[in-house]
Amino acid sequence: MKKQLPSHAQVVIIGGGIHGCSVAYHLAKQGLTDVVLLERKQLTSGTTWHAAGLVGQLQGSHATTDFAKYGIELLEEIEAETGQNPGYRRSGSISVAVNDERMAELKRKADFAKLFGIDAHYMSTPEIQERWPLMNPDGVLGGIYMPSDGSANPIDLTTALAKGARARGAKIFENIKVEEVLTEGGKVTGVRTDQGTITADYVVNCAGMWARELGQQNGVGVPLHACEHYYLVTEAIENLPSDLPVLRSYCDGTYWKEDAGKLLFGFAHFQAKPWAVNGIPDTFEFDSLPFVEDDVMSVLELAMERVPLPDVGIRTFFNGPESYSYDGRFTLGEAPDVKGYFVLAGVNSTGIQSGSGAGRALAQWIIDGHPPIDLSEMDPKRCEDFQARDLYLRERCPETLVLTYAMHWPNRQRETVRNLRRTPFYHPMKARGACFTETQGWERPGWFAPQGVEPKYEYSFGRQNWFDYAIEEQKAAREQVAMIDYTMLGKLMVEGRDAERFLQRICTNNMALKTGRVAYTLMLNERGGIESDVTVARHADDSFMMMSSISHTRRDYLHLRDQIQPGEDVRLRDATASYGVLGIMGPKSRDLLRAVSDDVDPPNEAFPFNSLRHFHIGHAKVFAQRLSYSGEMGWEIFVSPDFAEHVFEVLMQAGEQFGLRLIGGEALNALRLEKGFLHWGHDMAYTESPHQIGMEFVCKTKKDIPFTGRDAYLARKAENKGPFLCSVKLRDPGPLLHHNEPVLRDGKVAGYVTAGAWGQSVGAAVGLCLLNLPDGETEKAAVEQGAFTVLVEGQEIEADISLTPFYDPKSKRMLFGDT
């Protein structure tokens, strides 16, 4: 007898794969049982059913590793709860290296595992061959063994989650197609299906490769695209050990696992193709795609060399579609423009190992009203409109598949869909040797190549080809004068009669600024966590400009928009593209400014730090604000795009006498880390409170209009729980810091590096780190009394930890220009 659809549910979940069933299970397990899951065909019939089923605890980020660790725990427990065996086998995994750079990457991966208490240790080539006798050891330098890894049966795991959800009261319906998500006044109201309408308080889009198209109906960007993905299954192999670890040879682009007496080997392709560019067939269910040998021949040949099987035939040639995102990150969270509309999709072939944990996180978010951990990397708000369009995704998403097993180099740049957003300084900087990086479609100089050197990244975990050039760029900023393109930084205008009152409520610092003054401030959430850090400049009584980092401009705009109260006269507009911006910095930056303008007086008393002035450079009207992200005296100069190149040329010509040098993002990152300046998303997020990162000085708790999150912040400050942000510097000038290196105190893991670079002024790798301290111990005592080291590729490197920056801790150079 066919089940009747209910007329209402608190939560409607769209999609019956691993993610939809995980969300339903965890909502019900946490007490929200009025849940309906709708599947267009049968459970698992989209992508889940043909997944390889690999599970491992260590993933690419803190959040995804948290998901995967929980996933292993659930696999070990769910059969006792539901009676459904998920097919979990804890066989372990071995990742092999065939060159020194891959070994360096694997060692860093093993270091990262220590942050989570996950066993990952080196294994020699003879030891690997003993565990994996079918492997050809030629060229293998060794590898990393992770005993907790293994595999599960995707259908059985999903079935177990569905059974657990049903047992707690959730309702699951198959063969129901959702035709439309219903909304009213910017909020979800339910779904319309081919068999009736269900009203709902929340709708969760777990539609897998259909998620993008479904989201587009409501203007919800789900930045993924289905791509073709291949694997092979051999005929039965006599005496094949059933406990073979999963073997990964990243450089060969292949993984192997034992599969019921056979070998399954899958590929991370060297070339990849998007699938269903004209839409997914409505009849798709448990379907596979044509197997085109030419698409995988190059990687197949490498696979056969690594694991030769001369007397074994191939039983299954499989090609199935899987969803990949444009940036290799999940989309998990509430849609920015439709309240109550949540998304979990685009997990880049990690659904079986991450699906249980991701579903739990989304369920906790719905129940608690906020993310349970830092999920900012997955936030749907990170995605610009153009990045959710099919034209962009058809090119960018296949590159994510190609990069799955490629080297995960520091600062690796994408190669597809480039040169979309160019600043007015793009062409003159390109002519002067700029090597461009890309963020949110913006092309931004990473470093500058001298004449005769190709401006192209040559990647390494050691000193890359730009290292010496960036050192000279840092040196120019510290000793003379440097100039950088800041155009792509967000510029959000907050205007209207109530603009000041609005910003007083939203910002921690005092926004009752005089016209022409600038302030650095945080914006907090109701839990006292940091939603963003920005600078705010007052241009008039009713006009402020808020400057955001490149990657968070849209997120900051949406945060401000959502805080405007009914009746407030506050208007927002994004003015990012309205100005070209050049940053000048260094002890001779004042001399440069004086040389290019006769109507501005740059001494400290006339143009102090945190102030703004209007004047001319050459024939162009400009305004500049005296700020610094380098730790040096500096200005940010704003000019309309039509005069931008003219101002650039005037500055370049005048700067010759002062040793002016163009610099890029690589140098700036090192400069800001020497000075201990933070970056939201790396060194802090909405999980951290100001007291943890040394930002109490911008929290004006006694101003007339209390800022959002004030009381929660004060309560958290009184509790004084970490982790706490510190500066870190290696004593050995040789090793490099990138990020996520474990920091040890007296031999025990105490935290990790959030961001690192090699600092020219301090002569060593320098960075910031988040440290957990023993209960009852003050930050000062912990830093002064502990012996600190940092794990870099398996080696403990002695380090200095400081609560103040290693460079100019009293900010005399930045505030007064003192040298």
TrEMBL record:
It comes from the Bacteria. SUPFAM superfamilies: Aminomethyltransferase beta-barrel domain (SSF101790), FAD-linked reductases, C-terminal domain (SSF54373), FAD/NAD(P)-binding domain (SSF51905), Folate-binding domain (SSF103025). The keyword Oxidoreductase applies. Keywords: Oxidoreductase. InterPro entries: FAD-dep_OxRdtase, FAD/NAD-bd_sf, FAO_M, GcvT/YgfZ/DmdA, GcvT/YgfZ_C, GcvT_C, GCVT_N, TrmE/GcvT-like. Residues 368-422 form the FAD dependent oxidoreductase central domain. Residues 725-808 form the Aminomethyltransferase C-terminal domain. Residues 11-365 form the FAD dependent oxidoreductase domain. Gene3D superfamilies: Aminomethyltransferase beta-barrel domains (3.30.70.1400), D-Amino Acid Oxidase, subunit A, domain 2 (3.30.9.10), FAD/NAD(P)-binding domain (3.50.50.60), Probable tRNA modification gtpase trme, domain 1 (3.30.1360.120). It holds the Pfam family GCV_T_C. Residues 426-703 form the GCVT N-terminal domain. PANTHER family: AMINOMETHYLTRANSFERASE, PYRUVATE DEHYDROGENASE PHOSPHATASE REGULATORY SUBUNIT, MITOCHONDRIAL-LIKE. Belongs to the GcvT family. This is FAD-dependent oxidoreductase. It comes from Ruegeria haliotis.
